[in-house]
Amino acid sequence: MIRKNPNGDIPVISPSAYVDKTAIICGKVFIEGDVFVGPYAVIRADEVNEDGDMDPIIIGANSNIQDGVVIHSKAGALVKIGERSSIAHRSIVHGPCVIGDDVFVGFNSVLFNCTVGNGSVIRHNSVIEGCEVPENYHIPSTTTIHSNADLKSIEQVTPVQATFSESVVQANTELVKGYKRLNNEF
Asked: pTM of the prediction?
């Protein structure tokens, strides 16, 4: 469902993107080309800051927002997800938050008030808040990071992890094509 927010902002979605009919896209949201938005995802830009303004939620080209993901923002802060990034099933991305290009965020992870550098991998059930994850970092499953100091024990992404992230993007890019073809059948 595509709908306006109370300010009257309406989502802008590239014609080459695929948004499942059960997803809710609300307000000042920009979805770029070849993005996959899966079933029951919610992307909602509707809160304003103290001046009555809001920054958008931006989903970069060739990224995928999988089933049940929630993306929202506190007080109209920016949420930006870079190109070729994957936000896996039931994760929450709550702004302010900037996620770089080629990032993988695993199932049920929560990101809030953080920046995640290009090429980073955040595995399943992790919580990242109040920090800046550098480029190409690997956050293991069930890790909780609450400050930059917590990142001292974190290692770099291995080639195997990078290949996995790329394969998720490729699989979802193919889903965009397949579902777009199916839309023509109904």
From this structure: 0.93
